[in-house]
């Protein structure tokens, strides 16, 4: 996956606001709207832009309880890891999931309506799964920053 300086500028722009028109993005990046659309299409098809999303307030949609959960598996076998990854992807409560190194095998960001709902989720998702060795929950007291913007390295000109 390669991109140039103009692509890098487009990536910086759309990470700040992906609702801008191709005309505006093109103007900011020094391109025509058509050239900008072509580049955006390529950036998406190449997987450089993975998704166009809106960040929704968990509190505003009735899910004010937010947790970071460290999960340890009984064994690190490929089939167990793959099964747990699939469970993460299919769970609406799990907003983000990361396979990590260190003391835990996975870190999950989970939202819930109430602590009772979270307890029901833990019974279903963790306690009923024989592959789970244990989990530790950290309740989020305040979200300081929310986003997905990645610093974009600007390639050297050849």
TrEMBL record:
GO terms assigned for molecular function: sequence-specific DNA binding
Keywords: DNA-binding, Transcription, Transcription regulation
Top-level taxon of the source organism: Bacteria
Alphabetized SUPFAM superfamilies for the sequence: Dimeric alpha+beta barrel, Winged helix' DNA-binding domain
A Pfam family assignment: HTH_24
Keyword hit for DNA-binding: yes
GO biological process terms on file: regulation of DNA-templated transcription; response to amino acid
The HTH asnC-type domain, residue ranges: 3-64
Tagged with keyword DNA-binding: yes
GO CC, alphabetical: cytosol
PANTHER family: LEUCINE-RESPONSIVE REGULATORY PROTEIN, TRANSCRIPTIONAL REGULATOR AZLB
Protein name: DNA-binding transcriptional regulator, Lrp family
């Amino acid at each position: 996956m390669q991109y140039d300086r103009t692509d890098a500028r487009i990536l910086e722009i759309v990470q700040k606001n992906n609702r801008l028109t191709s005309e505006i993005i093109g103007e900011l990046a020094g391109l025509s709207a058509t050239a900008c659309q072509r580049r955006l299409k390529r950036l998406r098809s190449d997987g450089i832009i993975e998704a166009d999303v809106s960040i929704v307030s968990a509190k505003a949609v009735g899910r004010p309880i937010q947790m970071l959960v460290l999960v340890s598996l009984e064994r690190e076998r490929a089939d167990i890891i793959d099964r747990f990854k699939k469970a993460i992807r299919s769970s609406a409560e799990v907003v983000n999931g990361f396979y990590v190194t260190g003391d835990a095998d996975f870190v999950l960001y989970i939202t819930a309506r109430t602590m009772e709902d979270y307890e029901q989720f833990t019974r279903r998702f963790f306690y009923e799964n024989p592959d789970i060795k244990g989990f530790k929950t950290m309740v989020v007291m305040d979200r300081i920053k929310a986003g997905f913007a990645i610093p974009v390295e600007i390639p050297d000109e050849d």
